[in-house]
Amino acid sequence: MTDLTSLTLAEARKGLADKTFTSLELTDAHLSAIEKARLLNAFVLETPDQARSMAREADAKLAKGEAGPLAGIPLGIKDLFATKGVRTTACSKILGNFVPTYESTVTSQLWRDGAVMLGKLNNDEFAMGSANETSCFGPVGNPWRREGNNTTLVPGGSSGGSASAVAALLCMGATATDTGGSIRQPAAFTATVGIKPTYGRCSRWGIVAFASSLDQAGPIARSVRDSAMLLRSMAGHDPKDTTSVDIAVPDYEAAIGKSVKGMKIGIPKEYRLDGMPAEIEKLWSEGAAWLKAAGAELVEVSLPHTKYALPAYYIVAPAEASSNLARYDGVRYGLREQGKSITELYENTRASGFGAEVRRRVMIGTYVLSAGYYDAYYLRAQKVRTLIKKDFEDCFAKGVDAILTPATPSAAFGIGEKGGADPVEMYLNDIFTVTVNMAGLPGIAVPSGKDAQGLPLGLQLIGRPFDEETLFSLGEVIEQAAGRFTPARWW
Ligand code: GLN
Predict the structure, then answer these.
(1) CA within 13 Å, CB half, 346
(2) Which atom of ligand 1 is nearest to the CA of 129?
């Protein structure tokens, strides 16, 4: 039998249905891979007992022919999703050993469909970061390294644990969240597929909030088809989240292999940055050529407000974060530091519970929302946001079906290499992804090639609201042309 961890989710589904192996065998293979990969620090909590009992349950259902669409498939869960009875920390000291008494809607739908939980995955503290370096559990290693070089690289962030675990074959897929790029950027850094669906497609209920008007859950997977399978289970209307939309969830997998002939693909000229590495430029042209060869038509489009997206995002996101994070006061959850008064208790708890990046965001957010500055910063950023959204609407109104861009401005970098002296250096990673969150649109990152040092690079496709299907069809074309990439094992 081939190594069970190297299968795609779709292949594993077939093997389980054909009784070639059991979910318990598949789960055990992944649990043992996780044990051998602790160096990567992708998991912050392993739940082997729960995994085996869920696998046995799935095997019983498979035997009876009552299996759900993800029956017996072992997954990793980003530690931002509340899991009932299982520690959930958002990788922040301030949540301490918080054990939720409830399950997030997204994860409960995965369990409803038969998936198996292997454990909780590392992420940037409260999902703030682009390198998974702000986690209170320490950084995550990218399974990819530069050719002939042993430097450990970051897997991207904030869903760094999710991307690293999927790329290192520790789980067959993972949940992730994306506020400004946190699904797509780590997917691009690790040669995995990540889709951020349209805002409102997945319920945010039970996901630790960062910036509520931008946060959206989605999967990171080994192939475009696998990501379609996972999103189908994760998506759906939930009365517990008023921003979740009551539109039927399509069979995303049916979009795989569908012809893209005649589709109009926009190439936004504003995404051609000065000083962008030639390799990224080359990858972008290659991607366009693959789509053209499949029958799509390429058109240059303009998204004139792109240059304001990053500054506006770094006002809107911290503003919402400062308000969302007000609840961590040392009284309601996790960590509590003592103080002589209740105010001092709050101050001491928040000072020692939040890491530096989170404190920075809370301070920026509080400042831009404060009386006297609100209009100049927050209100203006909201207006810019409307213009960014309108840029995309204008483009789609001209008949464009999807937009092709690079996913990131560079390949993965070394731990500690970026953002030490200047946080903006780190924020620049999100330049191609934040626009999509600001506009609430779906975006997928698909592995598309490698740079001269052998590191993976990804392309991004941006779609119309609730048209994830077109992204899956186009993503499949890129995947077929580029192939799939697996890192050589060193851990
Ligand atoms: N890197 C961005 C930030 O730090 C996006 C994070 C995310 O999408 N959660 O805010």
Answers:
(1) 8
(2) 4
pLDDT band at 2 (very low <50, low <70, confident <90, very high): low
Boundaries of domain holding 96: 1-491
d(CA 226, CA 78): 17
Average pLDDT over residues 152-160: 98
Q: How many angstroms separate the CA atoms of 223 and 173, rounded? A: 9
Name the residue of 128, 359, 434 to mutate for ligand 1: max ligand atoms within 8 A of Cβ.
128
Atom of ligand 1 nearest to the CA of 357: 4
Is the whole model's pTM more than 0.70, yes or no?
yes
Catalytic (active-site) positions: 78, 158, 182
Atom of ligand 1 nearest to the CA of 429: 1
Q: What is the pLDDT of residue 361?
A: 97
CATH code of the domain containing 458 = 3.90.1300.10
pLDDT above 60: residue 253? yes
Rounded average pLDDT over 206-216: 98
Average pLDDT, the chain: 97
Residue 459 CA to ligand 1 centre (angstroms): 18
Q: Which two tokens stand for residue 285?
A: 């042209």
Report the number of distinct structural domains present in the chain.
1
Contact between 51 and 74 (Cβ < 8 Å)? yes
Give pLDDT, residue 420: 85
* Region of 369 on the Ramachandran plot (φ > 0 left; ψ -120 to 50 alpha; else beta): alpha
